[in-house]
Amino acid sequence: MVGAYMFNIMAAELLWAGICLGVVVATWPAPPWDLLLYGGGALMLVLPLLCYPFSKTVFLAFDLLFRPPTA
Fold it and tell me: Which of 23, 39, 51, 71 is most exposed, with minimal Cβ within 10 Å?
């Protein structure tokens, strides 16, 4: 399901960006750049695995919305 992969990448990248932006804003005078570099890389490996079941469910809901089952 290519659509579920697309939803997964979008969800993982938006979550990653929100976490990184939150860390930068919370620690603004001196953000931990090493933590952001290595932690961000680790998150980009882990987040798609964690988001996939939810993104697959959301994709199936959109698919049913646009192509409802017929009798």
Answer: 71
Half-sphere exposure at residue 23, Cβ-oriented, CA atoms within 13 angstroms = 14
Q: Whole-model pTM?
A: 0.84
Cβ–Cβ under 8 Å, residues 43 and 16: yes
pLDDT over threshold 80, residue 60: yes
- Residue entry with tokens 């697959």: 56
Tokens representing 54? 């939810």
Mean pLDDT of the chain: 94
Distance of CA 42 to the CA centre of its chain: 13
% of the chain beyond a pLDDT of 70: 100
